[in-house]
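Open question from group meeting: does this chain pack into something compact, or does most of it stay loose? Before anyone orders reagents, we agreed to write out a predicted structure and look at it together. Recording both the input and the output here so the notebook holds the full record.
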Amino acid sequence: MSELITRRLKAARDRAGLTQAQLSEKLGFKDRQTLAAIEAGQRKLSAEELVRAMRVFGVDLEYFTDGFRLVGEGSFSWRAKGAAPGLLDEFETRAGRWIATYRRLGEGKDKPASTLQGRLPLTERSTFEEARAAAAALGNEWDLGEIPAQHLERRVRDRLRALVFYVDAPLSISGAACQLPGLNTILINRKEPEGRRHYDLAHETFHLLTWEQMPPEHTESEIPRGGKGKRVEQLADNFASALLMPERTLAPLWQARGDRDIHVWLNETATKLLVTAVALKWRLVQLGWLSKADLLDIRDDKLTANGRPKKEQPVPRLFSQEFVERLHQALSVGDLSVRRAASLLETTIEELADLFRAYELTVPFDL
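Structure tokens returned:
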């Protein structure tokens, strides 16, 4: 707990833009060295000093002590279009609580995270061709097969040991990646069309694999954008397209198209690959199989089905198997109360019971 308080005190100071000297004065310390010793873990913050810190930063006690929150840790990159800053901040707090809950309930039980995290040999100076080549190599290494969208989620979980959460997010938010030491996470809006969800997953996988050398922006616009956007996002788009729509799969399908209407072919092929027809269109441009003149003949309003009728697109279950099973175990052994669990998930007790039923788990409490 002392380590947690110390870490969050420094996070609060950084967020407020205060120097150690300035905060020391506000906390009533005689010199900066006292605060420096606290932040270095060489001295504990007393109860009286903690109360003063709460007043200085205008936060509650749980800000410093609640292990079911992410405070001063975890870097998010959101894919959102027109989301109000307040809305995004609020949802990030909620997402951080879910991630922190999974981590807290696994303390002392999880296997140590590997110190060798997966990386792609790419930088912002890399070419789009290099990003596509990296996608092709990863597809082979991960054995993603002819239709990568069918296997990518499992590979992300197994190879990167990352969480993949399907969440109910505001319509303006498609998803996000969160870099957290030992627990990287990808969040996907489960109400998005199936093809968009797969593209989001591939796009965010790129960010997790390149975060150190080219950290993404906190907020980016929706995708695909056909070559527009900041360099890191352009590289992510090229990577995602090549990963989900490998040339080896597309080539025979394109060659067999004949004189079929391009809209029909795009929709049918997108259905086969479980991607959006719009993303497939831009992939053909990447490959040089469609010219700018060809694009003028393609109407995106004819691609709105995303290659598959919406009623046929399955909606993923909320959160993930790992998360719900961990929550179930904590409730079963009494590590977490039912009311606390419902509060963390911002749900009713009845909805919490429905969540366990959705994963074919017994409800570990009486309604």
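Observations to bring back to the group:
The mean pLDDT is 91.
The chain is about 50% helix and 5% strand.
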